[in-house]
Amino acid sequence: MDMGRVCIDHQRIHLENFSPFLQCHKCLQFGHMKTRCTSQESFCSHCASNEHQISDCPVKNNPNTAKCHNCHSHNTQFNAKADIKHPANSDSCPRLHAMRDRIANRVDYGSA
Ligand SMILES: [Zn+2]
Ligand SMILES: [Zn+2]
Ligand SMILES: [Zn+2]
């Protein structure tokens, strides 16, 4: 039991090292930064438009226009119906939660 608690505490420390964990501001994918981005496309993190970025988003102040690029492409890919009415960098994004879980599960104390 004590071992388990120690591991969880370690995970929390590791997760904080990832925080805010990497999300590309250009393509909105996780795990790399804009400067390392190899994507040809960029998307608005607010409304998922590929014609502008968040800094030029004409509707970024209107929460009703939020559309998550990651959830939208997940829905398209897996024929899912996840809620997409949130910005791609929203804390309520289920893709972000999935990524957070994946990072937590990947934490390895021996070989990291
Ligand atoms: Zn990128
Ligand atoms: Zn936009
Ligand atoms: Zn989302």
Automatic annotation (TrEMBL):
Name the InterPro entries for this protein.
Znf_CCHC
What are the CCHC-type domain coordinates in residue numbering?
A: 23-39, 43-59
User: Which GO terms fall under molecular function for this chain's record?
Assistant: nucleic acid binding; zinc ion binding
Protein's name according to its UniProt entry: (apollo) hypothetical protein
